[in-house]
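Researcher: We're teaching a course module on how sequence relates to structure. For the next exercise, students receive a sequence and then see the predicted structure as tokens, so they can try to spot secondary structure elements on their own. Here is the exercise chain.
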Amino acid sequence: MGKIVIRQYQDGDKDAVFRLHFEALQPTGAMLPGGPWNDDDLNDIPQNYFNGGEFLVGLIGNQFVCMGALRKKSATVGEIKRMRVHPDYQRRGYGQMMLDKLEARAKELGYTKLCLDTTTKQIAAQALYKKNGYKEVSRTAYAGLEIIFFEKKITPG
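Model: And here is the predicted structure for the students to work with:
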């Protein structure tokens, strides 16, 4: 198995990003029908993420193994989105690598707080976020899923 390369999303990545999104999310039981909560933002990644944010993909050879995004919520708050690791590549540290890159980018952009959400079904994601200092701030129900909201203060760099 080759070395992972994490790079910024490119125009030709759209189909692979959608495929990874579904392949990684489906086994968790947290898949929702298409729409604003699930995947509308993936239809125009540059418009939704490159204005004060970032969208990264991780590849081993030509295989998309992970992805993650950072979206601007305000001048001081960024939102971590679309953290996905292909099921065949989970538990190898790729989610941690992606989160580290996104947090570093958030600091470069001057954010002082990061927020994110996941579901109660995504146990591994919850563990990753808690391990990295994210604190649960609230919960809500949406389309039959319980959504957990997390926040973390960061120091811009």
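Model: If you want an answer key for the exercise: The mean pLDDT is 92. Residues 34 and 89 are 25 Å apart (CA to CA).
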